[in-house]
UniProtKB/TrEMBL annotation:
Belongs to the cytochrome P450 family. Keywords: Heme, Iron, Membrane, Metal-binding, Monooxygenase, Oxidoreductase, Transmembrane, Transmembrane helix. It is a single-pass membrane protein. It comes from Zingiber officinale (Ginger). GO terms for cellular component: endoplasmic reticulum; membrane. Its cofactor is heme. GO terms for biological process: brassinosteroid biosynthetic process; brassinosteroid homeostasis; gibberellin biosynthetic process; sterol metabolic process. Pathway: Hormone biosynthesis; Plant hormone biosynthesis; gibberellin biosynthesis. One of its GO terms (molecular function) is ent-kaurenoic acid monooxygenase activity. It is found in: Membrane. It holds the Pfam family p450. This is Ent-kaurenoic acid oxidase. It comes from the Eukaryota.
Length: 493
């Protein structure tokens, strides 16, 4: 029998060891923070936001990944709020860099609108995978030029009207095919649908074998976007780099073929996005180089099907889970179809603009799901914001997820309620599904058009029956059910 004295004699050394280890670990973390902050000087250090720089090399990434691989991704920022209060700004060490994380809507807005003090600061993995000539990596001046040259070919009213007929035809045929099957991976099939649409728009391709193989390559690319830049076999970043090389080779081959055809025929060969990018020129007569064209296409092909596919899935799921919302949205689409002239075939842009309640459904889905949960900037000089210092060269993370789920702007923020948008215009900076300022996502209108057309046909003629309605959700790189939403599509009319 162990006496009380013997028990204490056993426990006290253990307690001392635990205390020593805790102090040692705490000392390592403090040393890591000191190594990055010491060059700022004592006065500057005293004005940094509160926070925690984490462990050497990995910083706060382990806590970030742990939260986003759990059922509670908001636990990561919540831990800073719990320890340091609701300051709206916290120092951290993320993706290999000292970082200021910004969570308050008004502060995010200030940074997004200030191109002089804040430039893109995406992680190395994202920059290398999307491309050095893509929208997210280039300078403010180059961004303005490239956006000006490409905007009308993507989001312009005329361009969207041109795409509408193909989008609707593809959606209608695809829904019919799904309804004739048994169960499908709804998200996987939606990503294929949106990729098929974007391939037609950008490369005028309907080659099913090419589309399916490229869509798989893009899956690998996308999984590396939010990964640490570890170029070792088995890691997501390594697979994503291989995927990018494959995409560049394919697009360069297509581009070379187009150039060869133009040498024998001066007229556009396909009149798709690639042709338009080859044709546009600025006021000085400068055209886009091959690298610019390829990086723009890689970015658009990725963003144009990933975000549209995921948001379409979640909007469909939310509609099916909320019968009252479903019926209200369906009535609106019924009215649009009833009022259509007898000789008209298919939707028009004018009808799409009349989908006011459906637009609220989509905005509410964008708000809750947060496909782009964070954005990245970098300070060009020392700047004070909200009385806190953001040092020159430090990265800034704008946490759109916290902005879009802010209970002060949106009571019961995780409740799906499209009617909250009735007579409600969010304050600038409090709704950031596509970012803001000069870096606003250039394909936002095209994405919303794809989603609207799909939901129009789904609401009128189909229902979704999930096989695992309580399936766990994963949040990296985008929120999705782990089973990719296995479901049956049932035709009801």
């Amino acid at each position: 029998m162990v006496t009380m004295g013997e028990a204490w004699g056993f426990l006290l050394p253990l307690a001392a060891l635990a205390a020593a280890l805790s102090a040692a670990f705490g000392g390592v973390r403090r040393l890591h923070a000191w190594a990055w902050e010491r060059r700022l000087g004592a006065v500057a250090r005293s004005h940094l936001p509160p926070g925690d720089m984490g462990w050497p090399f990995v910083g706060n990434m382990l806590a970030f990944l742990r939260a986003f691989k759990s059922s509670d991704p908001d636990a990561f920022i919540a831990s800073f709020f719990r320890r340091y209060g609701g300051t709206g700004m916290y120092k951290a060490f993320m993706f290999g860099s000292p970082t200021i994380m910004v969570t308050a809507p008004e502060l995010c807005k200030q940074i997004l609108m200030d191109d002089d003090h804040f430039v893109p600061g995406w992680p190395k993995a994202t920059n290398e995978l999307v491309g050095e000539k893509s929208f997210i990596a280039i300078s403010v001046e180059e961004h303005k030029r490239l956006r000006r040259l490409t905007a009308s070919t993507i989001n312009g009213y005329e361009a969207l009207s041109t795409y509408l007929q193909f989008i609707e035809k593809t959606v209608a045929l695809t829904l019919e095919r799904w309804a004739s099957k048994g169960s499908i991976e709804f998200l996987t099939e939606l990503r294929r649908l949106t990729f098929r649409i974007i391939m037609k728009i950008f490369l005028c391709s309907e080659d099913e074998i090419l589309i399916e193989s490229l869509e798989r390559v893009y899956t690998d690319l996308n999984y590396g976007m939010r990964a640490m830049a570890i170029n070792i076999p088995g890691f997501a970043y390594h697979r994503a780099l291989k995927a990018r090389r494959t995409l560049v080779a394919i697009l360069q081959s297509v581009l070379n073929e187009r150039k060869a055809m133009r040498r024998t025929n001066l007229s556009p060969t396909k009149n798709d996005m690639m042709d338009r990018l080859m044709e546009v020129e600025d006021a000085n007569g400068r055209k886009l180089c091959d690298e610019e064209i390829i990086d723009v296409l890689i970015m658009y092909l990725n963003a144009g099907h990933e975000s549209s596919g995921h948001i379409t899935m979640w909007a469909t799921v939310f509609l099916q889970e909320h019968p009252d919302v479903f019926e209200k949205a369906k009535l609106e689409q019924d009215e649009i179809r009833r009022n259509r002239p007898p000789m008209q075939k298919g939707l028009t842009m004018k009808e799409v603009r009349k989908m006011e309640y459906l637009s609220k459904v989509i905005d509410e889905t964008l708000r809750i799901v947060n496909i782009s949960f964070v954005s990245f900037r970098q300070a060009t000089k020392d700047i004070y914001l909200n009385a806190y210092l953001i040092p020159k060269g430090w990265k800034i993370q704008l946490w759109y997820r916290n902005v879009n789920l802010d209970p002060q702007s949106y009571p019961e923020p995780k409740k799906f309620n499209p009617s909250r948008w009735d007579d409600f215009v969010p304050k600038a900076g409090s709704f950031l599904p596509f970012g803001a300022g000069s870096r606003l996502c250039p394909g936002n209108d095209l994405a919303k058009l794809e989603i609207s057309v799909f939901l129009h046909h789904f609401l009128l003629d189909y229902q979704l029956v999930r096989l695992n309605p309580n399936c766990q959700v994963r949040y990296l790189p985008h929120p999705r059910p782990v089973d990719n939403c296995i479901a049956r599509i049932i035709r009801i009319n």
